[in-house]
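Deliverable D5.2: sample structural annotation.
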Amino acid sequence: LPLFKYDRAASVLSEQRSEGVLLGFFKDAQYAEQEISLEKGDEVFLFSDGLIDFEIDGQKKSDIRLLKSRISDLKASGKELSEIKDVLFNEKTSQVDDCSFIVIKRS
């Protein structure tokens, strides 16, 4: 899965992709390092596949574009990180898989 980077100055949420094996998939996997530049106010969103999974008619589906669109819309409307978390994780949201969501913000 990619991670999302929010560029505060440009108000743009972009995908940052990497190559190779999924993190944690194999015990002895090798990973290439990547550096991501963050300016003051920029944010990085890391998440597990459970956050992009949902169910329709008993079938598990995944849509990373939907998650990106939701976060982008929430950022554009001025929502703070705690509010974004509350929108993504609440009692009205059905989750079909375990979810991890980590946000790093440069202050």
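Annotation notes: The longest strand covers residues 3-7. Helices lie at 64-76, 81-88.
The annotation will be released with the project's public dataset once the embargo ends.
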